[in-house]
Structures are given as C-alpha cells and as structure tokens.
Write a structure and sequence with these properties.
The structure is a homodimer of 178-residue chains. The first copy, chain A, is an alpha+beta fold. Helix content of chain A is 66%, strand content 13%. The first copy, chain A, has helices at residues 6-17, 22-33, 41-53, 76-87, 98-104, 111-141, 146-175, and strands at 20-21, 57-64, 67-74, 93-97. Chain A has a three-stranded antiparallel sheet with strand order 1-3-2. In chain A, strand 2 and strand 3 form a beta hairpin. In chain A, helix 2 (22-33) packs across helix 3. The first copy, chain A, is elongated, with a radius of gyration of 20 Å. Chain A starts with 5 loop residues before the first helix and ends with a helix. At the A-B interface, helix 1, helix 4, strand 4, helix 5 and helix 6 of A face helix 1, helix 4, strand 4, helix 5 and helix 6 of B. Strand 4 (93-97) of chain A pairs antiparallel with strand 4 of chain B. Chain A binds a DNA duplex (28 and 28 nucleotides) through helix 2, helix 3 and strand 3.
Chain lengths: 178, 178
DNA sequence: TGGCTCATGTAATCTGTTACATGATTCT
DNA sequence: AGAATCATGTAACAGATTACATGAGCCA
C-alpha cells in the first residue's frame, strides 16, 4: 500500500486538476487549502520524488520565458491511487487549537488574560471570515465548472465554522466577569 | 527557554489543578481535551521526566490500596512556567480535516462519493454534539468553582462549532445534485 | 543595483504516534 | 479463572517544519 501520508494525496489531487511544479503546488496549498491543511517545501519536494519513483506522476522540464522548471503530470496509476484514497472514509479530523488550550487552563492566570486570548482569536476569525465570504461569492458564479463546486463546498465550511466561532466569542466574553 | 512543546504545558496545566499520575493525565486529556487536543503515553511519560529534570514538577511515590504509583506535583517554578506560557499569545490554531481534503478533491470521483463523506461527517458530529451539550449543562451547574468555568468555555466552543458544522452539512448536501 | 518573487532542494530537528513489553489489581 | 483496567515505560517509525543553500529573472 506504500505511503499513506496525506501530502502525497494532496499533490495527486492538485495534479489531477492540472500540471504543476512543486512551487505552484505550494502556492495552491497556501491559497486554497490553508484553512484546513498546510504543507512546506520540505515535505512537497521529497514527496514529488517519491511519487515519481512509484510512477504515480511523471516529471518533465518546461521552459517558460527562458526559465527552466520541473513540471509534474499525474499518470493513470496516480489517478487510480487518488480515487482509491477518496473512496476510503476519512479517518482523522483534528482540531488543534492552542487558543482553546490557553482558555482551558486559564484558571492559572485569571479571566482578564483569558479574555485577551478570546479577543485575539475573534479578530483573527473576523479577518479570515471576511476573506472567505468574498471567496464564496466569487465561487458561486464559477460554480458550473465542476472543480469549483468542490472548492466552494470547503469555503462554505469555513464560513459556517467561523460564524460559529464568532458566536462562541460573544457568549464566552459574556461569561467572563472581567 | 527550554522546550516549548505543548504536551509539557498541558501537563503543567493539569498539575496546576491537582496532583496526578501520568496515567491520570492521559485520562484527563482523553476526557476533557479530546475535542481539541490529544496525547499518548509515548509523549506523556517522557515529558514528565523532562519536566522533573527541569524541576518544574516533583515526583513522589504514593501507595493507594497497596498499589504503588508515581504521582507528580507542580513546583513554583512549574507554575511560573505555565503562567509565562499562558501570557503569550496563541500561535497555532490548526484544523486538519481529512474530510475537507476529500471534499476538496471530490471532483476526481464525483458527487455521490463526496456526499458519503459529508454524511459520515454529519453522523460523527451529531454524536459528539449530543455528548458536548450534556457536558455544557452539567458544567453550568458547577460553574461557581473557577476551574469549571474555563472547562465550560471550551465545551461551549465545541457546541457552537459543531452546530456550524451541521449547518454546513445541510447546505453542502443541498448543493450536491446526486 | 538592490530587492522581490520564482524555483528547487537538503539536513537537522521536532514532536508525536504506534506497537510492544510488563505486571499488578479489580471485577464478574 | 479470565477479562478488563490500572500503571509505567521504551523503541521504532512517521511525518512534518525550519533553516539553510543556491541561483535565475523581473522590476523600480
């Protein structure tokens, strides 16, 4: 079954949309997935080599404006591997929020400091929500193209989640007496 | 500044409430933090040794019903370290949802399979939400004790978040035509 | 010319999980 | 008696980040 690490699936996923370089994959992760996934060059480039060894992608040199770069294309075996993975149920859905950890143990420093964490969180969420809502509006118009529909679904997830966060911020602040 | 790893802060946090063994810390993580944090024996026991070497906790043998166990107490230095950490802003709030990854790349297998992921997710969330709502009700009654207030706050976060997830599930299913 | 972005990659390190090993006590 | 839980720990492995190294082309 080889490696199950998810960066490989992410790469296969993007390459199933279009050919890309490692650099472009990184940009796409940062822009499209950053709400619920991440990846660094230090994981992407080695993963691309691995996928090439397994014949799930092929590499080819492309020169654009006289600049050389390594573009990857997914193979039929790669598409198969992606579909196999997509057919299996999701195992790990994990939320690791340092903010919540600091709230949970807030008793050691008191309500005032805890409120600060909640307010910082609230500001961050408000910024992100504004951005995501713009995304959703744009994607709704592009939604006839199939891939955009799936992108829209995840952006909508972000919107609903962030709205829930903001509701929590309100009631949390109300519960604190300081 | 020594180690910044968060399992250490989690341990110091629990020990700031009461003395515990490594085993008990694990139980507490699984019951109180499992919504937004995790930890295995393989990380807890080594971390306890590390914290002891740094004199942030002290270990003592306790025999309960003739059974020996290693109980840990937080030191003043340990309390200080915990407070320092709580005073710094939270850096990493990360949501890593395999479900969203499978939805995002759902174009490769189609709407039918994507719907399955959403429905599985929905069921899981409904179960968790029911549990958390019970927690919140219980904690509201215990809320005069300070520590329970912070616990309540994080449970409330779970409730609002999960409600947001369920709203998303509804609109996501509506968007899928299959 | 200097700074930014494009572009690829590696080495060290970090942090954690999984699986295993061991054994006592309690429950049924 | 046998299973489950209490209790402590280690070794191997996994998966990823960070920092570094390198260099080309573009723009002001």
């Amino acid at each position: 079954m080889a490696s199950e690490k998810k960066i490989n699936q992410v790469i296969l996923g993007f390459l199933s949309h279009e050919d890309m370089t490692g650099y472009e994959i990184k940009k796409h992760i940062d822009s499209s997935l950053h709400f619920f996934w991440s990846g660094s060059y230090g994981s992407i480039y080695p993963a691309l080599n691995e996928l090439e060894n397994e014949k799930l992608v092929v590499r080819h040199n492309v020169s654009e404006n006289g600049r050389e770069k390594l573009q990857y294309t997914i193979t039929d075996a790669g598409k198969m591997r992606l579909k196999e993975w997509l057919a299996r149920p999701a195992i790990k859905d994990e939320l690791h929020y340092e903010t919540l950890l600091k709230v949970f143990f807030g008793g050691a420093v008191g309500e005032k400091e805890t409120r600060v964490h909640i307010e910082n969180f609230e500001k961050k969420v408000q910024r992100e929500l504004a951005y995501l809502e713009v995304c959703v509006e744009q994607l709704k118009n592009l939604c006839e193209q199939e891939d955009h529909k799936y992108y829209l679904l995840t952006a909508m997830f972000g919107v609903e989640t962030y709205k829930g966060y903001l509701r929590w911020c309100e009631s949390a602040k109300a519960l604190l007496t300081v």
